[in-house]
């Protein structure tokens, strides 16, 4: 399976919004749990949000609940991460990945892309 491709990152002011996109090639994202993860310099990669296959059950890291929304468009084979009320501590390289089981632990996910950089700064 080809790596996923992330896009949509950029530089945004605190309080601003971004929408990240995750695209798959050659397989159907609806058949997997898809997670969004982030890694800041000097820190470990951490799970931010996950949407499960099937019923699409969703889970979020506590610090992003109420600000981030994960969604999937099965017609486009895409998964999105809408990020609102961004804070400087959200600055990181953001990745998407897939797994047969849902969760926020990076070690259970595969098909990592190159990531997309999100910088929140004034």
Describe the structure.
There is one protein chain. The protein has 122 residues and is an all-beta fold. It has no helices and ten strands. The protein has strands spanning 5-7, 10-12, 18-23, 33-39, 46-51, 58-60, 68-73, 78-83, 92-99, 116-120. The chain has a six-stranded mixed β-sheet, with no helix packed on it. A hairpin with a 6-residue loop joins strand 5 and strand 6. 32% of the residues are buried. The mean pLDDT is 96.
Keywords:
122 residues, 0% helix, single chain, mainly beta, six-stranded mixed β-sheet, globular
In short:
This protein has 122 residues and is mainly beta. The protein has strands spanning 5-7, 10-12, 18-23, 33-39, 46-51, 58-60, 68-73, 78-83, 92-99, 116-120.
How are the secondary structure elements laid out?
Elements: E1 5-7, E2 10-12, E3 18-23, E4 33-39, E5 46-51, E6 58-60, E7 68-73, E8 78-83, E9 92-99, E10 116-120
Parallel strand pairs: 2-10
Antiparallel strand pairs: 1-3, 3-8, 4-5, 4-9, 5-6, 7-8, 9-10
**Rounded average pLDDT:** 96
Query: Helical percent range?
Result: under 10%
Biggest sheet architecture: 6 strands, mixed
Distance between the termini: 39 Å
**Helix/strand class:** mainly beta
3D shape:
globular
SSE arrangement, N to C: EEEEEEEEEE
- How much β-strand is present in the residues? 35-45%
Multimer state:
single chain
The spatial strand order of the largest sheet comes to 2-10-9-4-5-6
| Computed CA radius of gyration, to the nearest angstrom | 13 Å
Number of separate strands: 10
The number of helices is 0
- Name the poorly predicted regions: none
């Amino acid at each position: 399976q080809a790596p996923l491709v992330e896009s949509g990152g950029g530089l945004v002011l605190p309080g601003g919004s971004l929408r990240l996109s995750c695209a798959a090639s050659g397989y159907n994202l609806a058949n997997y749990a898809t997670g969004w993860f982030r890694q800041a310099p000097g820190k470990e990669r951490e799970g931010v949000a996950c949407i499960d296959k099937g019923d699409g059950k969703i889970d979020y890291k506590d610090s992003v609940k109420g600000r981030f929304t994960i969604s999937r468009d099965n017609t486009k084979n895409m998964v999105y991460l809408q990020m609102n009320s961004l804070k400087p501590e959200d600055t990181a390289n953001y990745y998407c990945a897939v797994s047969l089981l849902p969760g926020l632990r990076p070690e259970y996910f595969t098909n990592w892309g190159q990531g997309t950089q999100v910088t929140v700064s004034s």
